[in-house]
Amino acid sequence: MxxxxxxxxxxxxxxxxLLGFGVIWLxxxxxxxxxxxxxxxxxxxxxxxxxxxxIGALDKYRYLPFVLSRDEDIRQLLSASQxxxxxxxxxxxxxxxxxxxxxxxxxxxxxxxxxTLASSNWKESVSFVGHNYAFRPYFKDAMAGxxxxxxxxxxxxxxxxxxxSHPVREKSGIIGVVVIKVNLEFLQQQWREGGETVFITDKxxxxxxxxxxxxxxxxxxxxxxxxxxxxxxxxxxGQAKLGQLKTREHSIAGSSVTEIDKRDFLVSTLDIGFxxxxxxxxxxxxxxxxxxQTTFVIGLVLMTSFLVGALxxxxxxxxxxxxxxxxxxxxxxxxxxxxxxxxxxxRRSEQQxxxxxxxxxxxxxxxxLGQMSAAIAHEINQPIAAIRxxxxxxxxxxxxxxxxxxxxxxxxxTFLTERMGAITGQxxxxxxxxxxxxxxxxxxxxxxxxxxxxQPLFSREQVRIKTHLPSEKIYITGDEIRLEQVxxxxxxxxxxxxxxxxxxxxxxxxxxxxxxxxIRVRDNGTGMNPEIIEQLYDPFFTTKTxxxxxxxxxxxxxxxxxxxxxxxxxxxxxxxxxxxxxxxxLCDAPSNGHQxxxxxxx
Length: 602
Description:
GO molecular function: ATP binding
Number of strands: 18
Distance between the termini: 122 Å
Coiled coil: 332-359
Keywords: ATP-binding, Cell membrane, Coiled coil, Kinase, Membrane, Nucleotide-binding, Phosphoprotein, Transferase, Transmembrane, Transmembrane helix, Two-component regulatory system
Subcellular location: Cell membrane
Structural class: alpha+beta
Shape: flat
Strand content: 15-25%
Main location: membrane
CATH topology of the domain at 63-286: Beta-Lactamase
Largest sheet: 6 strands, antiparallel
Radius of gyration: 45 Å
């Protein structure tokens, strides 16, 4: 008896769950039914709208073949026993203007044998003039005294279009045919832009207009051999294979839907009429499944909530009120303790975060200070070395009593001190892209200054410098000191790369490539490892192991070249050694005032 009492409640629960699932399924089913009814009404309205659009597009040009068939020039051309070239040219021009005004694709005239005598595209490579279209149904219909209607791919242009024809009559009978071709691509474009799934089929169920390009020229059902022969004979769809579009019919909520490309659609079809076409509008039924799933989930949540609530109430009735209150008080106490611990931990984490942020800011300041210090030490080292050389030369001249020759050394020392002051500004520009006033600069002058600056090093290292420069002056837009800095860095790197060789040689080439000035600096050293060429311009990257460099020379040079609108490329020359190629946009020679200043400076 006790076991029966235990089984009784559980059996009730089981039956309740089954009934709940049954109610949820029925609710989902009817939601699907009502949703499909709504979608069906929507598809009818949209189908009617698209039907009107298609009919309007076709009827827009229907009058034109009739009007042209009554043109006297066209009748005279078709009645003549032999072609009149002047008349043909005049009709071609007239048809071209008519086609442009009507916004059609092509307008053309055929004689009673199907040969095109005049066409609006007479001057194009795909001209219809001279082609025979007697095999087309629209020609046969017109010669039979009817208006022709036919959709096909152009045999010459390959462009699909809708052909409308009208016979040209005389007392003796039909003497020719006027045809207008209309490109209906704009309909497909409108369908695609609207995000709709629409297509039109012909009498053989072949899709020839569709919002989905991948469905074009596929059939909704197998095409008989007789129909296929007829399609091929009139060349309606060119070389298209006319395969069958894979579809599958199945049921959702008691209604039939069509599956295409793993998507379900509610299909509505409407006959267009005179061309024996059918317009199909497909509405995706994903909304039905979404609503059914939503209904099922809501029902499941409600049923689960009901069951959980019922269980909770049942368990709650079994507890003693005093025990429940004690337990709740204990839980609240534990929660408060946990909250206090979390608050303390959060405050400690915020303090650590602030300390870490302060450390990062300080580290950033130290890194920036170290980079500037290293850059200044590297770049000022060369002018200082040159100043030492010129001072030594000045002392020697002074001892020898050659005071008149001291002027050149003192001018060089003055120039180098000015350059040292400019270097700090250049490093600042490298760091934060400060604006620089640019002007036309003569490349010969900058190269000669850089070579003169490096001459003491060349003499000490026994480096031979060879220049291949054109005789005329060449100008680029830039800054003399910054360009000198680039060439000095390249000369210094080339000298270091030739360390240990008996014969050291640096070659400088200056060429014009259309509107670009190309400068190549090449040495006969050991070349570069191809694996590190990509890293040459990274700050602090260096292959020197003797402490002579800190890896900023090429990085600064790269920044200067790019700031001046140029490019710098490094490679290993096929004959040996490394070669750096600099390219800058060519600029016009400076004004007379600037040239006089330049001469005075020189």
